[in-house]
Design a protein that fits this description.
The chain has ten helices and no strands. The chain is globular. With 314 residues, the protein is mainly alpha-helical. Helices cover 77% and strands 0% of the residues.
Length: 314
């Protein structure tokens, strides 16, 4: 089934609030109108409220733009599983859903989407970067559609292995631009939301690299890549908990988030040994297909908790 046939229709709502309207609803005015000092104070309060709302929205933006990175790798993983014959019908369904989510989120980041609390991107530099992402997605989505509709061969997967990386790279650049745009109020937590979100991507990237090895594609290169991805995930997980100056991670004192990171670590301890052994048989491929998803799920829960924390701090 083509993605376009199963898309949901989202309404993209753009907020436009003028100073006059906001002043008119904030407090009753005397017949003669406010004094210059009163007017200046009202405008100052309005700007502070608007900036507070913007700070809360930036936590969502960093989370969801970061999720886009993960989806580039998840779609690549799902195409590999289809090629390797692992639950092809289920993985085609998952692939279609991943593509719909990527496409909808991309539009929401650019145009705004009130249903997920995304405001419209107005920064011209970020919009230019998102144009680059959109062009790469237009190219990459052709592979998604082909994988949904027809049998795929090794040469097809080799092209997917090459073309997913530029999309990941440019989306990652956009995430860091959004992080920088969050400003001073989120200077401590914006990197935490970003890098915890990157952990989601790494769960899928390492799975993709394991499956590329199993498929016999650029084996030495992907073995080296897999080792680096595993090491980065492990280091970042420790940094999220206890701090890592080089990664701009201050550590997590909040008991509820630390408890969630404990769950992530448990899922990681389940999955990591499979990635580090040298058995790429179909049995191990099926185990990888099963074990990566609980890790992704629990890491996503942690990211959402960091997002909520950033909202309360803004």
């Amino acid at each position: 089934m083509r993605i376009l046939k199963c898309r949901r229709n989202f309404s993209f709502i753009v907020y436009s609030l003028s100073i006059i309207l906001m002043l008119g609803t904030s407090a009753p005015l005397r017949a003669a109108g406010p004094s210059p000092d009163e007017l200046a104070n009202m405008i100052d309060q309005m700007v502070k409220r608007k900036m507070a709302n913007l700070g809360k929205q930036m936590g969502v933006v960093i989370n969801l733009s970061g999720r886009q990175r993960m989806l580039t790798q998840k779609m690549s993983k799902e195409m590999l599983l289809i090629y390797l014959g692992v639950d092809p019908d289920q993985n085609r369904l998952s692939l279609g859903n991943s593509a719909i989510l990527f496409s909808d989120t991309l539009k929401g980041l650019v145009n705004g989407d009130a249903s997920v609390n995304l405001s419209k991107t107005t920064d011209p530099n970020i919009l230019e970067q998102m144009d680059r992402v959109s062009l790469l997605w237009k190219s990459f989505s052709r592979y998604v559609l082909a994988a949904l509709e027809a049998q795929i061969d090794k040469s097809f997967i080799e092209r997917v292995a090459e073309e997913n990386l530029p999309l990941l790279k440019e989306m990652n650049t956009a995430v860091y631009m959004y992080e920088k745009a969050a400003g001073a109020d989120l200077a401590r937590l914006a990197p935490v939301v970003n890098l915890s979100g990157r952990q989601r991507m790494l769960t899928q990237k390492m799975s993709k690299e394991f499956l590329l090895i199993a498929a016999g594609i650029s084996v030495p290169e992907n073995q080296a890549n897999l080792q680096k991805t595993v090491a980065l995930f492990d280091r970042t997980l420790k940094g999220l908990r206890d701090g890592d100056v080089a990664q701009r991670l201050p550590g997590t004192p909040e008991p509820d988030i630390r408890a969630q990171l404990d769950i992530v670590e448990q899922r990681w301890n389940d999955y990591r040994p499979l990635l580090e052994q040298q058995d790429y048989s179909i049995e191990q491929v099926r185990r990888a297909a099963e074990l990566n998803l609980p890790l992704l799920k629990e890491m996503n829960t942690a990211v959402k908790m960091y997002e909520v924390l950033s909202d309360s701090a803004s």
